[in-house]
Amino acid sequence: MDRRSFTLAALLAFLAVASLGQAGIGTWTKDGTPYMCYDVTDIALGRAPGSQYPTVYAADTVWNMSLFKTEDEAESWIAVQFPSYGPYAVTCEALNPKTLYIGVPGPIQETNTGVYKSSDGGVAWGRVVQGLTSGYVYTLTIDPNNNQVIWAGNYSTTTDPGHIFKSTDG
To answer: What is the mean pLDDT of the chain?
Structure first.
């Protein structure tokens, strides 16, 4: 199992056990995936203080190039609008899931690739790519102890090897 698959599996297990409380370790349940999802490439989970349920984001790139969100334990999903191609990676702050980042793969020279940030749950977005040498961002994470520290990983291209990038000004 590669690192990305392991990370996704671990996050899904956490969601099943901690948020839904229905499944035990080693038991998986299919829970309300949006019918329009074809290739979920990443998920992110956060819970604002006082919220009954976590906010869960699901990135779907291959067919729909979409980002979906649920705030009611997957009873319903809504499409989140964004200014680019479909995101491959998504992460959100653990205690403020309205702050999220998406990674959109493609050459950094294109104006619709790289990393985007939203501070309002996906209503408005800003492109944050200063210092990135490649727009092929396939993984993102936020430091759980400092939400100003964001990590991004990309894969190598014919002109640029893969890198891990760190931002300290979220």
So the answer is: 81
Q: How confident is the model at residue 107 (pLDDT cuts 50, 70, 90)?
A: confident
**CATH 2.130.10.10 is right for the domain spanning 36-167:** yes
φ, ψ at 105 (rounded to 5°)? -75, 145
Measured CA to CA, the distance from residue 49 to residue 133 in angstroms comes to: 36
Q: Map out the domains of the chain as residue ranges.
A: 36-167
Give DSSP secondary structure letters for 118-141. Answer: ESSSSSS-EE--TT-S---EEEEE
Q: Which residue has tokens 């779907």? A: 60
Question: Within the chain, what is the greatest distance between any pair of CA atoms?
Answer: 48
Residue 163 has pLDDT above 90, yes or no: no
